[in-house]
Amino acid sequence: MKKFTRTETIRQTVGLRFKHDIVIKKFRTEDGLEHEFTTWGNEGGRAGAVLALTPDKQVVTVRQFRAGPERWMYDIPGGGFEKGEDPEAGARRELAEETGYRPGSMTFLGTSSRDGYCNMTWYFYLATDCVPLEQGAVLDAEELEQGAETQLISIAQLIANAKTDKMSDPHAVLMAYDTLKELMK
User: Fold this and answer.
1) Are the C-beta atoms of residues 36 and 24 closer than 8 Å to each other?
2) Are residues 175 and 147 in the same domain?
């Protein structure tokens, strides 16, 4: 296996309204070859998402337009953590902000890099007995303008969505698959 040694890092912030980090990483291998990779997200950044279930085992999703695939998707609520924020606290905050739901209990499922070019670590949780908060969702301006909305779906539909490219975080479904199948009985 080749050893990759980073030789250069170029950071760029892109976007007009909502800024994102692009990190170009250059490496050299012991055979003298140079390799360049364009990655995204803040190095060392953290984010999380919650696979949230209501007491009657409905899955709380956020139906929103996703510009990459250019279609509406059923995503699980989540997003970036604030600096120094505990991962579970950040996941709870994202759940409340995006859907207006509060979990009864949370179980850590695991972490994921999402893909081979993401610099951030994503923390995934399973939340059960989620109930609506009185104030509802607190969407940001972009989410409101784009028409994001909370939608409840069945566990079977969630699994089908993960298998058919109708959600952007299938990692959590895989991490919770055995539990989800048991809850469907």
Assistant:
1) yes
2) yes
